[in-house]
Design goal:
By secondary structure, this protein is an all-alpha fold. The chain contains 61 helices and 2 strands.
Length: 1270
């Protein structure tokens, strides 16, 4: 009903004074307008009076005249405009009753809206103010609601809405929009139900291209719908129901015709409209949401998909999404359940929507759990979509709304079997870490906790061959990117270096090794990348003047070698050859600049920028391959620009006292309180390790920093900086170049340091002096003083003096030999036989453990290890001399005797039968002897690299081989690691591969797995001819080694014949294939044509092993359906370990059966028992107890003292971080054996297995096997 005015005044009635005639002939338009204006003014003034005081009878004439046709149909617009305004005011005066009949009201309102439609054309239109007043009056008085009482109300409402929408499209002032909105809302509120045509008009404005916030029609529509939502909820629902009924889409799956497609498009449009309405008027959809929920349960895939997408978009609305989720909880649960829909497309749609909901606090838990589940979805596209979704998040969402568990699940997808998933997973975690990097560098604890683990995991994953390229690319783009190239701005070298150090210091120790492998620091120079560039220059784009075949062959060989390090080797090889054919010398120049160790960070960034620009312009198809090539060839992680920052960091910790005089052990046990509080101790440790590694692997990086290094030596600020500087100077001097610090006082400081009591300082100072410009004079003085001081020195100084003498023996043999007789006599006759008391060892329960850290060893034990190194260095210095055999044989014998003596220079004097090696206190106890055995074994491996020194080692190879089965886990683990690194680098003869196979009985899976990985990877790398030499032919030597094994026993128990069968089976399993099985079988047979040089007993063992090998090979061939044809070629047996037999003897031996049927039954029964038996926990013999002063953790390769690692590798010129055989992405990243809280493995067996420990007596007797001639 129209609005009414409250009544409070009871004064005299108000009467209409207007008495002019409005109808009749002779009235001009102007005169009529004046009369109507006067009437309008009086009516407006009367409306301000109270209704009860108005004398309505005085309005009778005017009321009748105003609706006369002469006025309503007058040709003058002004007359009609005034007439409309007067009628509107008259309706206001008569409110709430209407002074007209229904037909008259219909004509009146039609007249109103005709005037408005034609008159509201803009503010400059004639009579605009009258039309404005008319509309304002209708809005204010709500008299328009009288339409709802008319017989044809719905039609009139529809016309009103149409007219108003047309008016709105003209861009009228905002007050006009508000008046029209009020009128339409009033009409909807007063009506019993909203007419369907009106609903369609409103909904149509949500469904047009003009449905933008800036559109007046759209603004009015939104305002009307929100204001009259209660009246529109039901008709809106009916509107969408009618669409679904009208375009009913088949609920069954099957072929679709054209009509079905049209129907589905209509339904799709309706769902799009629902999303649009929800965005601005969510209350209208109260009854539509349940329909969408029902659609998600339909069988039809397309409808389910459409409903899932629609609700996903609605839940993702920033303003109304949370409200929708709370109000329609059942719908939310149903939508979340779409994550498990049977159709991948719907699950994919769920993921696409869910990624926008993660940042919503109300939804993040449900969505996060769904994402974790879908990251393991069977469908590849779903897993990839989850990873991609996480990668598209912003920092705030990822940091505060995503759980760390979900991020780790995504990171684990980097090892997915499908490449598409791996690519998205790598990209996701790389992007997230890149976003978090600024916060991490600022020390934001949330960012560090949430993302700080990502680099560690990426570097560990990078060890996997199948994903190495992907991991490297992500690390280079997001984790440790090179600074962007800018010709105007300098590169911040300090920040770049510190970012790397921060990652290394916050990650596990394995990250350091991964960084080194990725940094190209450990590449032997010249690298294959250097050789490739030189080959490209020689190839000259295919125009070769001389040696064309040789040049082309070399190019293809190097390209194939480089490509073998890529997963798509064939394509990479083709790309490299195409790059060579392109022959752009600019690109060669940029590559040489990148590979030059003297190129700083700015030079590298510029070279990379120019290289990529030229490649992408000229040969874009090779861009991906060549960018990887450039990165791997360059020093993109560590280069000369890193050195100043590293030196600054290690120079900031100050130790009390004089570092040059303190003992090595004391310096290593400094408490944190003795270090500058402003220094990150982990950061300093990482910086030190990098400096030491650079000094060992690529000292050329120090060329431009030699004055700074000399300054550090003079300043002697810290123990760490002094050691790093000494080692760097020594390494540079050893290169033999003209690069030397221009410091005349440095030699005198070095002599003083070499005579000091610190082992590392003395060693590096002596090495520097032995390679300096004034080396003859300096070393002569040093040798004379050391020879005099050595016999009188205390234990700590003896360690340092022996280390210095070892350097002199290696690099200045002539000077050393002048005093060698006295020095060697003292070492052999005195030092190595000095007793070490157990009480002097810093080890708790020394009689219960097998290993300790180097810091816990007595200085005499370290000195004895140093003696072995000194002797080896002396041998190496005489390798090419006439006295090589004379010098090396006593040393090799000493080292072998140390191994046979269980790591002691002193024979065991107790009761051999009742001997308990843990109670044996020679050299201070079992831990000391473990270190000595390991050192002796490594020294022998070093000697074995020289062919002239090899015979005495080969003759007693079993003694060295048994180190692979040492009692102590650390000894055999470090030995196998060292052995496989040397074998991988072709530093040892193929016969040493036999030792690797002795690990088959090792109960520690990491040792066994390393041996397996080494064999498998090497066989993949070698060509058929090389595999024949390095693995196939050594089978006979392996059988010979087993025949000399101290545990050789022919019995039915586990330690007898079944154990020998496992040795042979392990070799056959890893080496045998369909191509070489006939050769291996032939080699096994040929063992019965010779006799062992060691005697009849070992020959009998060999013949048994021959038949055992034949049996194992036949079983393997039968399992894999291989045939074993006769081997067509002649094989020569190694005559250094065998002797030929006459034909008659051979015939007799072949007739003799050594492996009886009963023995075969033993093997079969033991194999059955092994397969059916459950693993039993057994107590470790040498499990280390954790004490305050006794860290008894298992030591990985890097856990041992860096000096000990460096002792051998310095002379070998190989990297201490070699690339080990790595598992594939399908293999577990973690070790199989569990670890306790202290890092000590709880796998029960330590040593050569239960077999060896149960036979301690036989083992000890076997280790003292008969020594034979030669």
């Amino acid at each position: 009903m129209p609005a009414t005015r409250p009544s409070t005044n009871t004064g005299s009635p108000v009467k209409l004074k207007f008495d002019d005639k409005l109808t009749g002939r002779g009235l001009s338009s102007e005169a009529l307008q004046r009369k109507l204006k006067n009437l309008l003014d009086e009516l407006v003034s009367i409306t301000e009076s109270e209704p009860e005081n108005i004398d309505l009878a005085t309005f009778a004439t005017v009321r009748k005249d105003l609706i006369g046709t002469s006025l309503l149909l007058h040709k003058d617009k002004g007359v009609k405009a005034y007439t409309a305004c007067c009628i509107a005011e008259l309706l206001n005066i008569y409110a709430p009753d209407a002074p007209y009949t229904a037909p008259e009201l219909k004509d009146i309102f039609q007249f109103f809206f005709r005037q408005l439609s034609s008159g509201l054309k803009g503010q400059d239109a004639p009579y605009y103010q009258l039309y404005h007043d008319l509309l304002s009056s209708l809005s204010r008085t709500k008299s328009c609601v009288l339409i709802c009482d008319l017989p044809q109300a719905e039609e009139m409402m529809t016309e009103v809405f149409k007219d108003f929408m047309n008016l709105a499209s003209q861009g009228l002032p905002q007050p006009i929009e508000l008046y029209m909105t009020d009128i339409m809302v009033a009409l909807l509120d007063e009506s019993q139900s909203a007419p369907s045509e009106v609903v369609e008009i409103l909904i149509a404005h949500f469904n047009t291209k003009k449905s933008v916030v800036s559109s007046p029609m759209f603004r009015i529509t939104v305002d009307v719908c929100n204001a009259a939502a209660d009246k529109l909820i039901r008709p809106v629902c009916q509107y969408f129901t009618d669409i679904i009924v009208q375009h009913r889409y088949s609920d069954a799956e099957g072929e679709e015709d054209e009509e079905d497609n049209r129907d589905f498009e209509a339904i799709r449009a309706a769902h799009t409209l629902v999303k649009r309405i929800h965005k601005y008027c969510p209350k209208l959809l109260m009854n539509v949401i349940p329909q969408l929920q029902e659609e998600m349960g339909l069988l039809n895939t397309q409808i389910r998909l459409l409903a899932t997408q629609t609700l996903g978009d609605m839940f993702a609305h920033v303003q109304y999404g949370s409200e929708l989720m709370r109000d329609y909880r059942t719908t939310w649960v149903t939508w979340i359940a779409r994550k498990n829909d049977k159709t991948p497309a719907i699950r994919l749609a769920f993921i696409e929507a869910a990624k926008r909901l993660i940042g919503n606090t109300d939804m993040q838990h449900d969505v996060g759990e769904a994402m974790k589940l879908k990251a393991m979805d069977p469908e590849e596209k779903i897993r990839a979509a989850v990873c991609k979704a996480l990668g598209e998040l912003d920092y705030e969402t990822a940091a505060y709304h995503v759980s760390e568990e979900l991020l780790r699940v995504i990171a684990n997808r980097c090892l997915d079997k499908r490449n598409t998933v791996r690519v998205e997973a790598f990209d996701a975690i790389g992007k997230l870490y890149s976003l978090a990097t600024p916060e991490i560098e600022r020390g934001n604890t949330v960012a560090i906790a949430q993302f700080g683990w990502i680099p560690t995991q990426l570097f560990e994953i990078a060890a996997m061959p199948d994903v190495k390229v992907l991991a490297e690319d992500i690390i280079a783009r997001y984790i440790l990117p090179l600074p962007p190239f800018s010709p105007k701005e300098d590169v911040d070298e300090d920040m770049w270096t510190r970012r790397l150090l921060a990652i290394l210091s916050s990650g596990r120790t394995t990250v350091f090794d991964s960084v080194i492998l990725m940094s190209a620091l450990n590449h032997a120079r010249p690298t294959p990348y250097h050789e490739f560039v030189e080959s490209c220059l020689e190839n000259n784009g295919g125009t070769i003047n001389n040696n064309e075949v040789e040049v082309t062959t070399r190019l293809h060989r190097i390209a194939k070698l480089i490509a073998s390090r890529f997963p798509n080797a064939l394509k990479v090889e083709e790309d490299l050859i195409a790059f060579a054919k392109h022959h752009d010398r600019r690109l060669y120049k940029y590559l040489k600049t990148a590979m030059d160790p003297q190129t700083n960070l700015s030079g590298l960034v510029k070279a990379r920028h120019e290289f990529i620009k030229v490649v992408e312009k000229d040969i874009p198809s090779l861009s991906t391959t060549m960018q990887i090539f450039f990165r791997r060839a360059s020093l993109w992680l560590i280069n000369p620009s890193s050195i100043p920052t590293l030196l600054d960091i290690v120079s900031t910790s100050r130790s009390p006292g004089s570092p040059g005089k303190a003992s090595r052990n004391k310096k290593k046990t400094q408490s944190a309180s003795q270090v500058d509080e402003t220094v990150d101790v982990k950061l300093m440790d990482v910086a030190q390790r990098l400096l030491l590694f650079i000094a060992k692997s690529l000292p050329e990086l120090f060329y431009s920093h030699l004055p700074r290094l000399a300054k550090e030596v003079h300043a002697n600020n810290t123990a760490v900086s002094l050691e790093a500087s000494l080692r760097a100077l020594a390494s540079v001097a050893r290169l033999g170049t003209d690069q030397h610090p221009n410091d005349q006082k440095l030699d005198s400081v070095m002599i003083k340091t070499a005579l000091g009591g610190d082992r590392a300082y003395a060693k590096y100072a002596a090495r520097y002096l032995s390679n300096s410009k004034e080396k003859d004079k300096s070393t002569q003085t040093l040798v004379d003083k050391l020879a005099t001081m050595l016999p009188k020195a205390d234990d700590e100084h003896i360690v340092a003096h022996v280390a210095a003498l070892a350097e002199l023996a290696r690099y200045m043999p002539a000077t050393f030999e002048e005093k060698s007789e006295d020095i060697v006599r003292f070492l052999f006759k005195d030092l190595v036989h000095r007793p070490v008391e157990q009480d002097s060892m810093d080890i708790d329960n020394a009689d219960e453990v097998e290993w300790c850290t180097k810091e816990q060893l007595h200085p005499l034990v370290i000195a004895k290890c140093g003696v072995m190194r000194l002797l080896v260095n002396r041998c190496l210095a005489h390798t090419r001399g006439d006295d090589a055999e004379k010098v090396s044989q006593p040393v090799a014998k000493l080292l072998m005797d140390v191994l046979d003596g269980d790591g002691s220079f002193t024979p065991y004097e107790g009761d051999e039968v009742d001997r308990d090696r843990l109670k044996d206190m020679r050299e201070g106890g079992a831990p000391s002897r473990s270190h000595i055995r390991l050192k002796a074994a490594k020294c022998l491996l070093r000697l074995a690299q020289e062919k002239s020194l090899l015979p005495p080692i080969i003759s007693r190879l079993p003694s060295l081989a048994l180190v692979a089965q040492d009692f102590c886990w650390e000894v055999r683990s470090l030995f196998i690691t060292k052995l496989t690194i040397l074998l991988s680098s072709n530093k040892l003869q193929p016969v040493f591969n036999t030792i690797v196979f002795l690990t088959c009985h090792d109960v520690e899976t990491n040792i066994l797995q390393r041996a397996k990985n080494y064999v498998l990877v090497q066989q993949r790398k070698l060509n058929p001819k090389q595999r024949l030499i390095f693995f196939d032919i050594i089978f006979v030597r392996y059988l010979h080694l087993l025949a000399h094994h101290p545990d050789f026993e022919v019995s039915e128990n586990e330690e007898g014949l079944p154990a020998l069968a496992k040795y042979v089976g392990f070799f056959v399993e890893l080496v045998a294939n369909a191509d070489n099985v006939s050769l291996l079988y032939h080699l096994a047979q040929q063992c019965k044509t010779v006799r062992d040089n060691a005697g009849h007993t070992f020959s009998e063992r060999l013949y048994l092993l021959s038949e055992l090998a034949e049996y194992v090979i036949k079983q393997r061939a039968q399992e894999l359906s291989w045939t074993i044809p006769a081997y067509p070629e002649r094989v020569h047996m190694p005559m250094d370990i065998f002797k030929s037999l006459p034909p008659e003897t051979v015939k007799e031996i072949r007739k003799t059966v050594y492996l009886t049927d009963e023995m075969i039954e033993w093997i079969i029964e033991m194999e059955k028992a092994r397969k059916s038996a459950q693993p039993k926990a057994r107590k470790r013999r040498a499990k280390a107890e954790t004490k305050a002063k006794r860290p008894a953790k298992r030591k990985k390769k890097n856990d041992t003292d860096s000096e000990d690692q460096e002792d051998e590798s310095d002379d070998e010129e190989i990297s201490s971080v070699a690339e080990p055989p790595a598992p594939t992405v399908d293999e577990s990243m973690s070790e199989d054996s569990e670890s306790d809280a202290n890092g000590t493995a709880v796998n029960p067996d330590l040593g050569r297995g239960a077999r060896s420990r149960a036979k301690a007596k036989a083992l000890h007797r076997g280790r003292k096997y008969k020594k034979h001639d030669g």
